[in-house]
Design goal:
Elongation Factor Tu (Ef-tu), domain 3, globular, 6-stranded antiparallel β-barrel
């Protein structure tokens, strides 16, 4: 008797879904939970914009975690997709997909999808 077949795998996520082919580090596998943070610093970096967020390793943030900068109404800001590139114990740095530094509101919120 043949062993049971595994369920089909979901297709790999593309750039619009925050997949590894969006230029950032690979996204951590497994189920995710939302984690809200605040942007502490916004800076122009080589090739784009970098933000420092008030969540880090102690909060479950890992390199490759994706998220969105939120508008004042709590909706994702167009072009505000972020990818965490560096983590520290209490903060992290992330690249912003399509916004310049001056287009990000001061003290903007960000929602990261961290591993459960």
């Amino acid at each position: 008797m043949a062993p049971p077949m595994a369920p089909p795998m979901a297709p790999a996520a593309g750039p619009e879904m925050g997949g590894a082919d969006d230029g950032g580090p690979p996204e951590p596998p497994g189920p995710k939970r939302p984690l809200q943070g605040v942007i502490l610093r916004i800076a122009e970096a080589s090739g784009g914009t970098e933000v420092t967020i008030d969540k880090g390793k102690g909060d479950g943030v890992r390199t490759g975690v994706r998220g969105d900068i939120m508008d004042p109404r709590g909706r994702p800001l167009a072009g505000g997709r972020v990818v965490v590139t560096k983590i520290f114990e209490r903060s992290c740095k992330a690249e912003v997909g399509g916004l310049s530094a001056d287009a990000i509101p001061d003290s903007a919120n960000v929602v990261l999808m961290v591993p459960q």
